[in-house]
From TrEMBL:
<keyword id="KW-0479">Metal-binding</keyword>
<comment type="similarity">
    <text>Belongs to the IspG family.</text>
</comment>
<dbReference type="Pfam" id="PF26540">
    <property type="entry name" value="GcpE_C"/>
</dbReference>
<keyword id="KW-0408">Iron</keyword>
<dbReference type="InterPro" id="IPR045854">
    <property type="entry name" value="NO2/SO3_Rdtase_4Fe4S_sf"/>
</dbReference>
<feature type="binding site">
    <location>
        <position position="273"/>
    </location>
    <ligand>
        <name>[4Fe-4S] cluster</name>
    </ligand>
</feature>
<keyword id="KW-0560">Oxidoreductase</keyword>
<dbReference type="GO" id="GO:0046429">
    <property type="term" value="F:4-hydroxy-3-methylbut-2-en-1-yl diphosphate synthase activity (ferredoxin)"/>
</dbReference>
<feature type="domain" description="IspG TIM-barrel">
    <location>
        <begin position="12"/>
        <end position="251"/>
    </location>
</feature>
<keyword id="KW-0411">Iron-sulfur</keyword>
<dbReference type="InterPro" id="IPR058579">
    <property type="entry name" value="IspG_C"/>
</dbReference>
<feature type="binding site">
    <location>
        <position position="270"/>
    </location>
    <ligand>
        <name>[4Fe-4S] cluster</name>
    </ligand>
</feature>
<feature type="domain" description="IspG C-terminal">
    <location>
        <begin position="266"/>
        <end position="353"/>
    </location>
</feature>
<protein>
    <recommendedName>
        <fullName>4-hydroxy-3-methylbut-2-en-1-yl diphosphate synthase (flavodoxin)</fullName>
        <ecNumber>1.17.7.3</ecNumber>
    </recommendedName>
</protein>
<comment type="pathway">
    <text>Isoprenoid biosynthesis; isopentenyl diphosphate biosynthesis via DXP pathway; isopentenyl diphosphate from 1-deoxy-D-xylulose 5-phosphate: step 5/6.</text>
</comment>
<keyword id="KW-0414">Isoprene biosynthesis</keyword>
<dbReference type="InterPro" id="IPR016425">
    <property type="entry name" value="IspG_bac"/>
</dbReference>
Amino acid sequence: MKHESPIKRRKSRQIMVGDVPVGGDAPIAVQSMTNTNTCDVDATVGQITALQDAGADIVRVSVPSMEAADAFGKIRERVSLPLVADIHFDHKIALRVAELGVDCLRINPGNIGRDDRVSAVISACRDRNIPMRIGVNAGSLEKELQRKYGEPTADALVESAMRHIDILDRHDFQNFKVSLKASEVFMTVEAYRKIATQIDQPLHLGITEAGGLRSGTVKSSIGLGMLLMDGIGDTIRVSLAADPVQEIKVGFDILKSLRLRSRGINFIACPSCSRQNFDVIQTMNDLEVRLEDVNESLDVAIIGCIVNGPGEAKVADIGLTGGSPKNLFYRAGKPNQKLDNANLTDDLERLIREEIARKKEQEDAIIARTGK
């Protein structure tokens, strides 16, 4: 079931966040944000490491004080992922983290005061090739725009972003990306669609304050999915009131479902019914936990009966169709062997890992032979 995505992505200029390209023809980057106290260096490093293990490309860290800035420097020394420093109002903090090796500044130039302060931050970024992210949120619009529009709207978000962009334009600084986030899906989507036609910088997507794990996943999937289907978006963050690791997992699942990026196993599983010949739900729950460490791409179909099972198994890398007295296991679309229920999960995990190893051997052999 290997198909190219039919989505035609918006053409954007490319920037570099550390060693991760964002925009242009680069893969859509997945990022999250730490929720530890930045001054607790060990805890923050531990969370960044967990996010990296989950597949994060970029991690944002809040830096609200000079004490946090100094802690950021220690964190920077201990992790390899590109780090974005989240800074509001105080330009001195921005200058400090620039010295300490930040890979991107999330800072709105209109919020940091006099023009000389803005110039100092832009100069520091230009000298060190550090990009910025202009981050507009519906909950923190400028008071003037609140009075003008009465309430947050898509037009208000776009106008706020363009004000910040105008400041960077006056300083001839184009090394930036933009986000326009609201917790309301339609407002967010409309704002991104509007600004996508006005600038060529990369766009960072997100539904801000989306909610808890379940509701936030649904809201983010709908909002980000609508934009990604339009070809809009160069990096994404799923904002959940949950373990940040879950944000990375959901982000990759969204991209995987749209064939925009693949990481880990793509499970095709039936919801189960009285026709099932094994416990589909428990089997899936166990496999997802056991195979969380897998980064390689693989389509695995787990279907409880013979109605849809054979058809799904034939187009997957690996498939299982419930049958009596034994279940039928498929490899590369063809029946391979029969498995009973007694050790079903153990057998499936073993066979899936064997298939991953086999594919990796084939890929390594091709690389050795062709150099590609």
